[in-house]
Specification:
By secondary structure, the protein is mainly α. The chain contains 60 helices and 16 strands. It is elongated. Keywords: Coiled coil, Membrane, Transmembrane, Transmembrane helix.
């Protein structure tokens, strides 16, 4: 087996040699423009530096040169350029960049590192006398040459010693040819192959043996080196091996030693050692040449700084170290810095065609902290490598392409180069980025969710308070609490007040003064004065917090109505719930834009500005795993795996988390886990729904999920809402899901309406889905206590909902099954099948709006004015509204109550309609009476109303024609009751009736009975009776029971000529109403004049008659018929005298005598006598003249010549006496009249 292995190894070596030869002849392609990080020779750019170095090297006094500059400034490039262009020197390069930080402070390690680089650089043959032993590899070619030499020497020796050996060998070969049947050539070929193989095997065995011997020797050397390394630390390596170092430079002939990266150790002591070493080398006689040390260092290497509380302080002499250590210092201007790194990287990316997907702004942002050219090159190289290696194979085309964001790839590469340690941690799910995205983001999101929950609770509390709030203003609210204070004090004294901080606060002041009121109710003890004493009341715990909540609510409400305010609050709650549902799924970049998420940068990352920038801008985001490693997809993607792990460990994830290998995911999840909230995922549910009919297990999973979602938990409800309304769910999946959910959760609508706090728009979206998608039986189950029916019935915009055409019939049928009664539907201008269905199936409430809406829909040409003023008539008379009329007639009382009576202007229904309604047996009596009261129309004949019980309402409300016919028809049914009395007492009624005479439409007895009842009805007012009696056609001779009538009623009868002047009536009046006698006589004066002797009147009655308005003729006849014994009333006597004077009435001498005796006025008596003288004899005249006054007595004595005063009355008297020949003559003598009496009587 060993021989076989040796042979195979040799064959592999031959193949490698062939490949190397081919590769050296082939040009290396660099399609991606990679750049190595090694220094590059560029004489043009570094000419000045090279010239400076060249001058220093040629200056024999300079032995230590410093090339100083910041990291990445190009020091190594300058040195390489110089080396490439100056072959006259032999260079030794020593770089200590590979040392660990733990070794940096150990001076001995640095020195040993320098020695190792020096000695291990040289071949053993170059320093054969060095005590440092190295493992020496014995080359096969060396063994082969030596072996060949030994073999040839041996063969020559044998030939010399034994020359016939060749013929012997030839004979033996011939024998073999004969035995094997080979020819000579074949035999020699076989022998040659055997010799070659044997030689190879022998060389291999020999090489192993030699190496084994060498290892043993080397182990001894290593042990010696180990002893040196384990020596005391106070003996440094340079001092220990100074002779080795001098020997080294003696035999190697190096002129220039270049030290790089010594500044990484921050220890200037090494420079002291090296300067000392350089001095020893240059002063060594055995070396005999100048050796220059060149140091590539950072600028601040010799600053020796220390930190204190005030910042950084430099040791005073530190700046002198630089010039003390070096003979010549060359400063290097930085090639790449924050100002030009952007341009350098950008140009490189564009030059290499890697610019797609990147922007100048982004490059500028990320390069601001990059000032090292090597870092810049490495960023480019790694960006290209990552970009190419993160390509994925397109399943359709089979081509590889990179679907990742170039900006994010470059961001990750920058992060890797700037923070390499953290990038290494990230590979193991540790470090700053991992902590930000996996821990701190979750905490910050939890805080935001808690804030949202608090805000939702606050808004829900506002809604709860608002529903119970009845105060419309802050002043009204304060007055409520003032009432509470009074109630606590059990005193409502308006003069009470509150004592607060030595001030007297009256209630009306507190209602106006918000600040004072709020200070008082927050006080633990209120001092209330009730008018007599102080009472201490504590409202702080009971009223303070409640007041401020209510105050905030009123302020929030502002000018909004209660309904609009609550709807606004519900919308805010819905928005917050939507926000809460997505906040955990939002990328951190969006969270920074929406909220203050600075807390995620607490800790180590706080000062990492570039990393914070990349995260804030979303250049490094939650998908960072896709940008740091290639995931070899098998049965699961990386995201699928994350999801399964979270389900297993019961960690909630965003519902919208994208999954890919869904069948494989389902294989990994156990049945029972589908009943837990951690499995809820939109993608997963979609896939289960789509495949549950073909996979029994999926059907089981689906049942578990639906059963879980019906538990009314916040998580379930949030998932449902997100899946239906936010997730891009397919139409078919949505149909299936909603059907299943509503079948399982019969209280789903109850939750939506009363507990979800969804706004109106979202509730309507759910309603649309339920009506269109859910089975009718399941919808009816959700309609517990008619909650769904009531909700739909109130939707005025129901017809505007966007129902799909294919579901219209289903929706129509459901409306009927739910017995929906729309109360406020908006009008539609075009034909609408749902509205047709609503109309034809009476699925609307009978109210003003719906009647108007249906009328406008069925009969758009209907006059709106008529609909408002004669609603039922308009519907009744319109042939297009038969269905509406039928619906109304079936619910006539509801129509009357909700429409007919509520339409204030609906007072002009036609008489026929009014009669139809009040004759409708379905209408309750109360509503019939309301119809009668409301309508203006008047019924001609009360008997047209079949329901006699409402006749009274007709009369009272004056809704029948005012006629004795209607009154008597009512009387025939109800006699003279309070209704007809009230009716007849109506001035308008009796005023009309007085102009109407009872007609012969009823039997005589009916009329007489009614009139008698009317006359004796004391509830008929006197004023009404005065009008009503005029229509009675009867005059009564005396059958009245006047004792049953009031004086006023009797008077009215008399005045209206309803009592005849008869002895019976006269006598009855004398007994019951004496004043009525004279009134009756006046009303029957003509009859009385003719029958004065039958009706005896008292003097005062006669006087009254004379003073009444009867005609003069009647008065004269009364006076002429008066008896002297009746003249016992001076007033009557005086009145008779006056009438006599005015009307030349001839009286009996006895009456004249009575009048003169009772009249003291002489002048009046003389006039009265002159008036009556024509009917008196001379004797009677003189007797009466003697009665008037003594001064007239001489005129009555015959033969005398009396004288009287010459005045008008006396002249009239004398003229009358002379005319009547009662005196002889008269003479007017100045102031007297002389009368010549006759001598004697004739």
């Amino acid at each position: 087996m060993k021989i076989k292995q040796i042979i195979l190894k040799k064959i592999e070596t031959i193949i490698k040699i062939v490949r190397i030869i081919k590769s050296t002849n082939k040009k290396v392609d660099n399609p991606y423009y990679y750049e190595d990080l090694m220094p590059k020779s560029d004489l043009e750019k570094n000419r000045q530096y090279c010239e400076s170095i060249d001058w220093a090297l040629k200056n024999k006094d300079i032995k230590n040169i410093a090339l100083t500059g910041v990291y990445g400034s190009g020091k190594s490039t300058i040195l390489k350029t110089y080396i490439d262009n100056h072959k006259e020197y032999k260079y030794l390069n020593i770089s200590l960049a590979s040392f660990e930080e733990g070794d940096m402070g150990n001076e001995g390690y640095v020195e040993k590192g320098i020695l190792k680089q020096m000695f291990y650089k040289e071949k053993h043959e170059s320093i054969p006398n060095s005590r440092f032993k190295k493992i020496k590899n014995v080359k096969t070619s060396s063994i082969l040459i030596k072996l060949l030499f030994i073999t040839l020497t041996g063969v020559l020796g044998i030939l010399i010693i034994k020359p016939d050996i060749v013929s012997i060998a030839s004979a033996k070969i011939q024998r073999i040819d004969n035995i094997l049947g080979f020819n000579r050539v074949s035999t020699y070929l076989m022998i040659s192959i055997f010799i070659v193989l044997a030689t190879c095997i022998f060389i291999g065995i020999l090489k192993k043996c030699i190496n084994s011997i060498k290892i043993a020797k080397i182990e001894t050397s290593i042990g010696e080196v180990a002893k040196v390394e384990a020596g005391k630390t106070d003996v440094n390596a340079f001092d220990k091996y100074i002779d080795e170092i001098l020997y080294y430079f003696e035999v190697t002939k190096y002129d220039v030693v270049i030290f790089e990266d010594l500044d990484r150790f921050n220890d200037i002591k090494i420079f002291s050692k090296l300067r000392e070493l350089n001095l020893l080398i240059n002063n060594s006689e055995q070396i005999g040449r100048r050796v220059v040390f060149i140091y590539a260092l950072k600028d601040d290497m010799f600053s020796d700084k220390k930190a204190n509380g005030e910042g950084e302080e430099y040791i005073k002499a530190a700046y002198k170290n630089r010039v003390k250590f070096f003979d010549f210092i060359i400063p290097v201007v930085q090639v790449a810095n924050s100002s030009n790194a952007c341009d350098l990287l950008m140009n490189k990316l564009k030059e290499s065609n890697q610019w797609d997907g990147l922007t100048e702004e982004f490059i500028s942002d990320i390069t601001i902290l990059i000032n090292d050219m090597r870092v810049l090159k490495n960023i480019y190289n790694e960006f290209v490598i990552y970009k190419e290696n993160l390509q994925e194979r397109d399943r359709e085309t089979g081509e590889y392409k990179n679907n990742l964001d170039a900006v994010k790839i470059l961001s990750m590469v920058v992060y890797k180069n700037i923070y390499p340690v953290d990038f290494a941690y990230l590979q193991n799910d540790e470090g700053m980025i991992y902590d930000v995205f996996k821990n701190k983001k979750s905490k910050a999101v939890s805080i935001r969710i808690n804030q949202i929950n608090e805000k939702i609770k606050e808004l829900e509390n506002h809604i709860r308070i608002e529903k119970k709030e009845y105060a419309q203003s802050l002043e009204e609210l304060r007055s409520i609490y003032i009432g509470l204070i009074q109630a606590k004090a059990a005193n409502n004294n308006a003069d009470g007040y509150i004592g607060y901080k030595n001030e007297t606060c009256y209630f009306n002041q507190l209602i106006k003064n918000e600040e004072m009121f709020e200070n008082i109710i927050q006080d633990s003890s209120i001092k209330y004065y009730n008018g007599s004493s102080y009472i201490y009341i504590n409202l702080k715990n009971e009223a303070s917090s409640d007041y401020f909540e209510r105050k905030k609510n009123i302020q929030l409400r502002n000018e909004l109505s209660k309904e609009h305010f609550i709807e606004k609050m519900k919308k805010e709650i819905n928005d917050l719930k939507n926000e809460k549902a997505i906040v955990s799924s939002l990328p951190l970049k969006t969270l920074f834009e929406k909220y203050d998420f600075e807390e995620v940068f607490d800790g180590d990352i706080k000062d990492k500005d570039l990393l914070k920038f990349l995260i804030k801008q979303g250049h490094i985001n939650e998908n960072y795993p896709d940008y740091i490693s290639y995931f070899y997809e098998g049965k699961l993607t990386r995201r699928d795996k994350d999801f399964i792990q979270n389900v297993m460990y019961e960690k909630p994830m965003d519902f919208n988390f994208k999954l890919e290998k869904l069948p494989n995911i389902l294989e990994k999840i156990h049945d029972y886990q589908f009943g837990k909230k951690y499995v809820l995922n939109y993608c997963l549910l979609d896939y289960i729904i789509e495949n549950k009919d073909t996979n029994i297990e999926y059907g089981t999973y689906y049942s578990f999920i639906i059963n879980q979602l019906a538990n009314e938990s916040e998580t379930s409800c949030s998932f449902i809402d997100g899946y239906i309304n936010k997730y891009n769910i397919s139409k078919s999946n949505k149909d299936i899901f909603i059907k299943s959910l509503c079948k399982e959760w019969s209280e789903f609508w109850s939750y939506l309406q009363y507990k979800s706090n969804y706004n109106q728009e979202k509730l309507d979206d759910y309603l649309l889905d339920i009506l269109q998608l859910v089975e009718d039986d399941d919808v009816l189950k959700m309609n517990e206590n008619n909650i769904l029916t009531q909700y739909i019935s109130k939707l005025d915009y129901f017809l505007d909902l966007n129902f799909e055409e294919k579901y219209i019939e289903k929706v129509k049928e459901l409306l009927k099954k739910l017995n929906v009664k729309f109360s406020n539907l908006n009008m539609v201008n075009e034909n609408n099948t749902i509205l047709d269905h609503i109309y034809l199936n009476d699925l609307y409430k009978i109210n003003i709006h719906m009647i108007e809406m249906i009328m406008n829909y069925c009969a758009p040409d209907q006059e709106s004015e008529k609909l408002m003023s004669a609603n039922y008539t308009a519907i009744h008379d319109n042939d297009k509204c038969e269905g509406l009329l039928k619906y109304i007639n079936c619910n006539i009382n509801k129509y009357l109550e909700n429409v007919f009576f509520r339409l204030e202007s609906n007072i002009n229904e036609s008489v026929d309609i009014v009669l139809e309604l009040i004759n409708n047996e379905e209408i309750i009596e109360e509503n019939k009476e309301k119809i009668i009261k409301k309508e203006k129309r008047v019924i001609e004949d009360i008997t047209q109303v079949q329901d006699e019980k409402i006749w009274s309402a007709i009369l009272i409300n004056g809704k029948c024609k005012i006629s004795w016919k209607n009154v008597i028809n009512y009387y025939l049914k109800f006699k003279i009751d309070d209704i007809v009395i009230e009716y007849l007492n109506n001035e308008k009624v009796n005023t009309v009736l007085l102009r109407e005479v009872l007609e012969d439409e009823f039997e005589e007895n009916t009329y007489k009975e009614f009139c008698d009842k009317l006359i004796y009805c004391d509830k008929i007012t006197d004023n009404s009776f005065k009008n009503l009696i005029k229509s009675i056609p009867y005059v009564y001779n005396g059958h009245f029971k006047l004792e049953s009538l009031t004086d006023e009623r009797i008077k009215t009868l008399i005045i209206n000529d309803k009592m005849k002047l008869s002895l019976e009536n006269y006598n009855n009046l004398r007994e019951c109403y004496n004043e009525g006698v004279l009134l009756l006589i006046k009303q029957n004066i003509n009859y009385y004049i003719e029958h004065q002797d039958d009706y005896i009147l008292e003097s005062n009655e006669i006087l009254d008659l004379l003073n009444s308005r009867i005609t003069i003729d009647y008065k004269i006849k009364i006076i002429e018929n008066i008896q002297v014994e009746k003249l016992d009333n001076k007033e009557l006597i005086s009145e008779i005298g006056k009438y006599t004077l005015r009307n030349s009435i001839i009286l009996d001498k006895d009456i004249i005598e009575v009048i003169i005796k009772n009249q003291s006025d002489i002048e009046q008596n003389i006039l009265f006598l002159i008036n009556q003288m024509d009917s008196l004899s001379e004797k009677d005249t003189f007797e009466l003249l003697n009665m008037i006054d003594k001064k007239y007595s001489d005129i009555t004595i015959y033969g005398k010549h009396p004288k009287i005063e010459n005045i008008e009355i006396n002249r009239n008297l004398v003229e009358k006496l002379h005319k009547k020949n009662f005196i002889s003559s008269k003479t007017y003598e100045g102031n007297i009249i002389r009368i010549n009496n006759k001598k004697n009587a004739d």
